[in-house]
Amino acid sequence: MTNYIDQNKERFLGELIELLKIPSISAKTEHKADMERCAEFVKRKLLSIGCTHAELCPTAGNPIVYGELIKNPTLPTVLIYGHYDVQPPEPLELWDFPPFEPVIKDGNIYARGACDDKGQFYMHLLAVETLVAQNNLDCNVKFMIEGEEEIGSNNLGIFVKANTQKLKSDIILISDTAILSNDCPSITVGLRGLSYLEVEVTGPNKDLHSGIYGGAVANPINTLCEMIAKMKNDKGEITIPGFYDDVVQLTAEERKALNEAPFDLDAYKKFLDIDEIKGEEGYTTVERTAIRPTFDLNGIWGGYTGEGAKTVLPSKAYAKLSMRLVPNQNSEKITELFTKHFLSIAPKSVKVKVTPHHGGEPAVTPTDTKAYRVASKAFEEIWGKKPIPTREGGSIPIVALFEQELKVKTLLMGFGLNSDNIHSPNEHYGIFNYIMGIKTIVKFFENYNKVD
Ligand code: BES
Ligand code: MN
Ligand code: MN
Question: Is any atom of ligand 1 closer than 6 Å to the C-beta of 113?
Fold first, then answer.
């Protein structure tokens, strides 16, 4: 197996480069045709690696690529999930290379989607190619690669609910997360949920001269900032009443285990060019990003932001904000709690409108399953080290939905690094991680049907 992968390494990279050239940005409607082209690319590859069936399943949005390789209905079935859509690449001027013209430099491949998630889901197609080529696949494989993960997976949710039989499987395998480092492999066993909203604050009915009216009329940007400032106290706790009610507190042992993962605070600060970290009192950095909820602004705007100065007291101010959620918080409930609280702290001098965007539930995946044991062993064999179970701060809302609708557990076997700049300029993926990932996935499949 290792031979086949090493011999085909250049082609494996070449194929990923072609995939990365397609600007499949789900957030922008102008890329509709690119989404189709990208889905077709994935479908063609599924057929070429031996899928007995592959199709583009239309949705109200971008198509879902579905494929299956059914060897024998009595064998166990692994369902592979990934996403072919990517985040918008902006701000373009901060990229060292154009985001859709992949470049290999210092052992990394640079492009939007290199790690999240094209480079990661494509490893699975190549792993299955390897297994088929060596006549070594002894389970059934289903693929479901969607095109709307980065915008909330709403249509995938509908598809999953309507196709429980088609998606019948024993385990769902996803590579869309990270390992701790190349020296310390890990398996993700928890993800945070998300509530995403937008707020609009309206003051006077028109923009005003800030000299004529300033000091006497509420400035909606000032007011928005004051309201936002009230959302956290000086311990870094979120002040929305009831916000923490459902949060599961980890036991002392669980917290100890979580903090055993290596973490270098100096390297962390250096990577981010910050002099000090900041977060909720009483929790470590690992805990703050794994098992504690957050409140963050994602964007704030209003008034004049063009060149030079304009003395204006604006009519409106806006913000996009999100809360990361942990077990057992519920995104709908949190969205409601936020809305109620935010409206309640609005002064009479402004009007406030809250619009929910999307949400997703947190997930915890089990370590006492055959799939986890097989994955752990695969890491040990390929990386020479037993992987550490870790919880990650990002969200893949569909994981909770898989469990709820399909009653199937997920195994999060990601191979990215937190330094890969996903969602950020200069996203990249290590060629080492790409190749090691393929080898680890092949090992997983080789052992999945042998271990109890
Ligand atoms: N692959 C990420 C999720 C992720 C990143 C998990 C890092 C663990 C570590 C995924 O593509 C993503 O970006 N998810 C979004 C949520 C979605 C609803 C837009 C996120 O986490 O912001
Ligand atoms: Mn992703
Ligand atoms: Mn993402």
Answer: no
CATH architecture of 2-191+362-448: 3-Layer(aba) Sandwich (3.40)
Atom of ligand 1 nearest to the CA of 150: 19
DSSP, res 300: E
pTM given for the model: 0.94
Q: 82 C-alpha to center of ligand 3: Å?
A: 11
For the chain, report the end-to-end CA distance as a whole number of angstroms: 23
Task: Choose one of 395, 412, 418, 421 to mutate for the ligand 1 pocket test, by most ligand atoms within 8 angstroms of C-beta.
Answer: 395
Q: Exposure of 332 by Cβ count < 10 A (0-12 exposed, 13-18 middle, 19+ buried)? A: exposed
Closest by CA to 114, choosing from 20, 14, 18, 10, is 20
Stated as kind and residue range, the H or E segment containing 256 is helix 252-258
- CA–centroid distance, residue 405 to ligand 3 (Å): 23
Q: What is the CATH number of domain 193-247+293-360?
A: 3.30.70.360
Q: Tens digit of pLDDT for each residue in 75-105?
A: 999 999 999 999 999 999 999 999 999 999 9
Cα of 177 from ligand 3 centre, angstroms? 9
Instruction: Ligand 1, residue 423: give the atom nearest the CA.
Output: 13
The predicted-structure confidence for 220-264, as pLDDT tens digits, reads as follows 999 999 999 999 999 999 999 999 999 999 999 999 999 999 999
Q: Where are the domains of the chain?
A: 2-191+362-448, 193-247+293-360
